[in-house]
Amino acid sequence: RAQMLMYILHRLRKDGRSPGIPVWVDSPMAAKATSIARRHCEEDGIDPNLAEEILENTRITRTVQESKQLDDNPRPMVLISASGMATGGRVLHHIKALGRTPRNTILFAGYQAPGTRGADLVAGRRVVKIHGEEVQVRAEVDCLDVLSAHADRDELLTWLGQSATPPGEVLINHGEPEASAAFAEAVHAKFDWPVRVAAPGMTVDVAAR
Questions:
Q1: What pTM does this model have?
Q2: Exposure string over 17-37, b if 16+ CB within 10 A, otherwise e
Q3: d(CA 168, CA 24)
Q4: Given CA atoms 84, 89, 93, 94 in this order, what sign does their dihedral have?
Q5: What digits encode the pLDDT tens for the residues 131-143?
């Protein structure tokens, strides 16, 4: 998703729809993923020249010290950090340092699961606990729901439909209870396959077929 954001910001800048302010990526995982994507961009159908152009206009932190210096930078910038739901990682330090200022914006990229700091902030909470400290968030907070990193219902059904042989059973995992139950019904209705929603403590025997 970091690479998607880099591309979107590049397009906005190139089309003259956003000012040419610096874009920083501050996430060790995103930095490694970007390096891998750069090496294999042609295999993914990405123009290598476009990839180089995006990277020329994106600054990636390489050290903890560089990350800390961003919080002291008084100039405008776009800062892409992780985790995306503010459950951990470097973004917590940035929220503590930059989220107190009304002129800043905290923009979440994608769905915020209930119980996370991201969900609390999007819902309007303006005091969150970070590293044991109560932090008053005065920055504008918004969310781009369309930037989910996961396939949606129809995409998952299409993927399942490509199975060469019917599975013995489909287990629905990694989702909210209502959404998981609805998707289980959709799978059964479309394929008439045995399907269950995974539950805490459930044991599943997986046999080679």
A1: 0.80
A2: eeeeeebbbbbeebeeebeeb
A3: 46
A4: negative
A5: 999 999 999 999 9
